[in-house]
Structure formats: C-alpha cells, structure tokens
Amino acid sequence: MTATPTGTTADTDTITMREAFAARATALLDADPRLAVVLAEISTDLFEDAAAAHPQRVVNVGIREQLLVGAAGGLALAGLRPIAHTYAPFLVERAFEQVKLDFGHQGTSGVLVSVGASYDWAEGSSTHFSPRDVALFDTLPGWRVFVPGHAAEVPALLDRAVASDESAYLRLSLRHNAEPHGTRDGSLDVLREGSRATVVAVGPLLDNVLAATAGLDVTVAYTNTPRPLDTAGLRDLAARTGNTVAVVEPYLEGTSAAIVSGALADRPHRLLSVGVGREELRRYGTAADHERLHGLDAEGVGARLRAFLAAG
C-alpha cells in the first residue's frame, strides 16, 4: 500500500467516531490511489468532498447493502483496497453471505466500517440493532476486529486496517469513554492493577468498568482490538490474578468466551462474560436505557463482578 499520512485530520475531542472515520478516510483517499470507499446512502454527506475529488473511488450504491459488500469485493478483485460502510445490522447480518463469499471465498480482503453498534439508535428498534456482529465474524477465518472507545482512537485503527492485507471490521459507536486509551500494537492496556481478577474492558465500556471496579482488588485492562485478542498478555495478567477473568464487551454476551477459555485451557480458570443479553428489549427507550437494562452500566457491571468474586 502507498504510505499513509500521519496524524489526524480533525479535532477528535469534539467529533463523533463516524466523523473521525470520514475525515481520516478522506485523507487516506487523497494519499493512496488504491483506496476506494463504497457507501449505501449512510454518511454520504460526510464524503461529499471526497466524492468530488475522487468520483471513481467513492461509490454510493444506494440502499442495497448486499450490493455494497459485493461491489467492495469486486473492487478488491480489481486490485483496490475497499472500505465499505453502513449501519452494522445491514453491513454484517443482512449482507453476511456476501461477506462470506465475496471476500472469504474469493480470497480477497477489505475493510468494513459500521455505525450503530448494538443499540445506538434505540428508537430505530430491532432492525437497527446488531449485538451479534462480532460473533458472526468469529465464524470466519482471518478477520481483524477493531472496537474503538473514543473518536480519537479511530484514525489509528483505520490506518492499521487499511495498511494490512487482512480483512478488518471497524465497529463505530455513539457510546464512548471520556478519554482515548489503547496501544499501538493491539496489546492489552493495563489501567489498574489488583490481585483477585483480571477484568478486560472492550471499547466504549471502559469507563463503566472503571467505575464498577472502584474499590475492588482487580486488574483492569482495555482493548480496542478484540480480534485478534492479545491472548499472550491475557495469560500473563491472569497468572497474576488467580486465573480469574471477566470480559466486559459491548456486543453479545459470551462472544469472547471461547477465545479466552482456549487461551487458558492448560490451567484451571474461572471466566465471567458480561455483554448484551439475548433477550429482545421491545420498550426501546434510549441507548442508555438499553445499556442499563442489559446490565452494562456501572451499577450492573459492578453487581455482576462482585457476585462473581464472592462466588470464588
């Protein structure tokens, strides 16, 4: 790939993850003639300048999400590095056959960037919810998954995704932490050390985890790169905390359980998975309501962790 520009192109303290993504993608389009962006109406306003500057490499296919992914796969076959972008349930669940075939089966790679996360647009109801997206990617080989917790983390994660020859999924959300965190290489970022358990917080749930663990004797580690999960770092931290581990993730509860258990399979261990429940919540409310009802606010996470530690 052509060398990408350094730094960010916008003030990521005041913009959303989606805006940070669009600004960085526009800069990358200017720098790299192999990059192309495929849209399905969503975020077209954020790519107006890019489309005007690169009309052959910014394509809007309309509200046709299967075509969105198929077109991106075709661009990859033609030697371009595609970025396909729309709402998570349409990009992953609706177009999963195209993800499976037009990338995996055809032996191509690209970057899929979603918005909406598990329940960001709560008033849009279940059609716009996607807590199962990362679990679906776990059924496919070779996909990297990035889950930023702050807009300032987005540019570097997009750079990594674009520069790689592997396929990548970048999961953007309106939910966010107060400050950016994370490491450049995807290793676990240890923010607090304790002895009774290792708690891994994924993406925008870090602040809730930090609040939930205040006063608890636990290690808190952060990742915005859950795939591939830093299992070597996890093994090291778990060894120091009695091989007792909790994973708090902003998508379907238990999504990471097999990976964590596999990493610790050679030693007795305890694992708590905290995430979005499988029950469909039909009184939609707000994203904050869903976070609370799924037990992912600080109070809910704290209650689960305290019960887990007490049972040990």
Topology of this structure?
Elements: H1 17-31, E1 35-39, H2 48-53, E2 58-60, H3 65-77, E3 81-87, H4 88-94, H5 96-105, E4 111-115, H6 133-137, E5 144-146, H7 154-163, E6 168-171, E7 189-192, E8 198-202, H8 206-212, E9 219-223, H9 231-240, E10 244-252, H10 257-263, E11 270-276, H11 287-293, H12 298-311
Parallel strand pairs: 1-2, 1-3, 3-4, 4-6, 5-6, 8-9, 8-10, 10-11
Antiparallel strand pairs: 7-9
Helix pairs in contact: 1-7, 3-5, 8-12
Organism: Glycomyces sambucus
Pfam families: Transket_pyr (PF02779), Transketolase_C (PF02780)
GO molecular function: magnesium ion binding
Written account of the structure:
There is one protein chain. With 312 residues, the protein is α/β, with parallel strands linked by helices. The chain has 2 domains: 17-171, Rossmann fold; 189-311, 3-Layer(aba) Sandwich (Rossmann fold), CATH 3.40.50.920. The protein has 12 helices and 11 strands. It has a 6-stranded parallel sheet, sandwiched between helices. It has a 5-stranded mixed sheet with strand order 7-9-8-10-11, sandwiched between helices. The chain is globular and about 60 Å long.
How many H/I helical runs?
A: 12
CATH topology of the largest domain: Rossmann fold
The oligomeric status of these chains comes to: single chain
Mean pLDDT: 94
Count the domains.
Answer: 2
| Gyration radius, in Å | 19 Å
User: Largest sheet, described in full?
Assistant: 6 strands, parallel
Order of helices and strands: HEHEHEHHEHEHEEEHEHEHEHH
CATH class of the largest domain: Alpha Beta
Instruction: Provide the helix percentage.
Output: 25-40%
- What is the name of the CATH architecture of the largest domain? 3-Layer(aba) Sandwich
Domain Transketolase-like pyrimidine-binding: 15-176
Protein name: Transketolase
Pfam family, one: Transket_pyr
GO molecular function, one term: magnesium ion binding
